[in-house]
Amino acid sequence: MAKNMKAPDAPKDIKKIFSRIFSYYKEYKLLVVIAVITAIFSSAASIVGTLFLKALIDTYITPIVEKAPGAPTIADFGIAVLAVGIVYIIGAVSTFTLNKIMLYISTRILDKVRTELFVKLQKLPIKFFDTHTHGELMSRFTNDVDALREMTSNSISHIFTTTLSIVSVFVTMIVLSWQLTILVVLMLFLVMFLIGKIGGNSGKYFKKQQEEIGKVNGFVEEMIEGQKVVKVFSYEETIKSDFDKINSDLCNAATKAHTFANILMPIMGNLAHAHYAITAVVGGIMAINGIITLGTVATFVQLTKSFFMPITQISQQFNSILIALAGAERIFNIIDEEPETDEGYVTLVNAEITPEGEIKETEKRTGIWAWKHPHNDGTLTYTRLTGNVEFDDVYFGYEENKTVLNGISLWAKDGQKIAFVGSTGAGKTTITNLINRFYDVPDGKIRYDGININKIKKADLRRSLSMVLQDTHLFTGTVMENIRYGKLDATDEECIAAAKLANAHSFIKHLPMGYDTLLTADGANLSQGQRQLIAIARAAVADPPVLILDEATSSIDTRTEALIEKGMDSLMEGRTVFVIAHRLSTVRNSHAIMVLEKGKIIERGNHDELIAQKGKYYQLYTGMFELS
User: What are the contacts of 70-77 at 24+ separation with CB within 8 A?
Assistant: First the structure.
């Protein structure tokens, strides 16, 4: 269950991840340069504004009060104030520009990251999804991308500007009074020690908080998907208890994370006040003794505030950055996954038959397909797509040293209906998965129209097949769009004809908007049987030479099944059909029935032959009728 999912790890190579993130900024070099310039202007404006306090006291107020010879006039003072006001305006505009630029860059970087992540998911092999939960993958698009957004839009620019501010303030302090700067350095050591102690604990618990959020999200998603099962087995109280446990873990981690984060600011604030007072006292003594001016003391005291607050803020930003880096690492791990390999070179093309019986490639859609097979000597041969499938001593296992199929050999000629029966886990669905090349066989051969399927491009191979799965999936869109998914260029008339063939037309007509009825939440507004009928129509519109029916009628009641049998027979006519069924009545008219047990074909033959043998099939068939 979700609560047992492995928690995400902290980033292993921070330097590498930072480098990867910054590589996205290369596309926006000019904007980055402008951002750096605006950050410098913003920091400089702050320093100039603070230094004006020294000029205000030493150059204007003191001479004017003491009526010293050559003292500036009120007009001079007004001009100085106006100049400082302009500097502050420049600083404000620079800060605004910096924020807008960083927001613009970050949104486009995240757009690119999300696109790369989504595109990579489409290229990954099925076995990747066998080992990663939906909640785990969704967390990459939500929690991890959001953490990365926070870092790219705020944290990076904030750390740069505050670091720039700290350096410039420190240099200004040294210029004003090296003696008072020594006090700052001593306080800085104390501050860094406290940040290391408190901030380290805060960062640890913030990472723990992100891990717990992932667990909670995964658990909630799993329970929502399985809500019917929860209610059927009265599991509500148990999952409440399970949820309380993982939610409590999240609460504890969040409490500790924010406790350490929140006590840091008050401690730093009080230290800043204490240092402020010490600096004022020491600076006052130095001013009385004529070592520095009163304006220098006032300016220096103000600079101490501008020095310590950014340090505290940076320490807090590091927590967000560590969380973002951990999320970025998980995102990049998926982006860097090996895509589904395809070394096939035989392609599927439109073809036409010449009067001489020769197969020729054509741009027109003729309804005739052929395999275009290039050879090492530069020649091309064309083999008509008919749907002959052959398994030759095939072994396969989803895990190493654990085989699911053991020496499977079978032949299916075009137009034949081949049925697989057997207990759960016997390997029936695995055979159909291998025909699609969802997985590649380590031993043995599978041939399609006499061609090793490893030589056929996967996209072309799958385009020649159509599947109706036991677990029907409908996409958000209209009924028409879901049927057209089987053949994207199908006309409305072709989709309606396919629906009629599958006996779905009658119920579709009575939907609120007919074929334009919007389906959402995997077709939750339809019955299970209606969803399955749409899936059958989707397979029918593809008009493939090979059809795979994996428990295609399992969700349809007996009456509906009888209604569609005729349509299914029309759909299967002239095609190679592989049928997996528990209802043995649906496979009686198969040309060959394969009985599987523990990954081996233990019986084969048509219905009458297998009944006469009185073996496993006979037991299954007669047992079914006894049950019914």
Answer: none
CA atoms within 13 A on the CB side of 1: 13
* Residue 42 contacts residue 88 (beta carbons within 8 Å): no
Instruction: State the pLDDT at residue 2.
Output: 37
d(CA 258, CA 160): 24
At 143, give phi and psi (nearest 5°): -60, -50
Asked if 333 and 120 touch (Cβ cutoff 8 Å), the reply is no
280-292 in b/e burial notation, b at 16+ Cβ within 10 A? eebbeebbeeeeb
What own/partner pairs with CB < 8 Å and gap ≥ 24 does 129-138 have? 130/398, 133/2, 133/5, 133/218, 133/222, 134/221, 134/225, 135/2, 135/5, 135/214, 135/217, 135/218, 135/219, 135/221, 135/222, 136/5, 136/214, 136/218, 137/334, 138/217, 138/221
Task: For the beta carbon of residue 515, count every other beta carbon within 10 angstroms.
Answer: 19
d(CA 354, CA 374): 21
Identify residue 291 by its one-letter amino acid code: I
Distance CA 612, CA 615 (A): 8
C-alpha to C-alpha distance for 147 and 149, rounded to whole angstroms: 5
Instruction: State the pLDDT at residue 563.
Output: 61
What was the pLDDT predicted at 446?
94
Q: At what angle do helices 492-501 and 528-542 cross, to 10 degrees?
A: 120
What's the gap between Cα 55 and its chain centre?
Answer: 56
| Alpha-carbon gap, residue 610 to 606, rounded angstroms | 6
DSSP symbols for 396-421: E-SBTTB-SEEEEEEEE-TT-EEEEE
**Counting beta carbons within 10 angstroms of the beta carbon of residue 65, is it exposed (0 to 12), middle (13 to 18) or buried (19 or more)?**
exposed
Mean predicted lDDT score pLDDT of the chain: 82
The three-state secondary structure class of 426 is: coil
The two structure tokens encoding residue 409: 């050999």
Domains and CATH numbers, the chain: 2-335 (1.20.1560.10), 347-384 (no CATH), 389-627 (3.40.50.300)
Q: For residue range 89-118, what is the model confidence (pLDDT) as tens digits?
A: 998 999 899 989 988 999 999 999 999 999
DSSP string, 285-322: HHHHTTSS-HHHHHHHHHHHHHHHHHHHHHHHHHHHHH
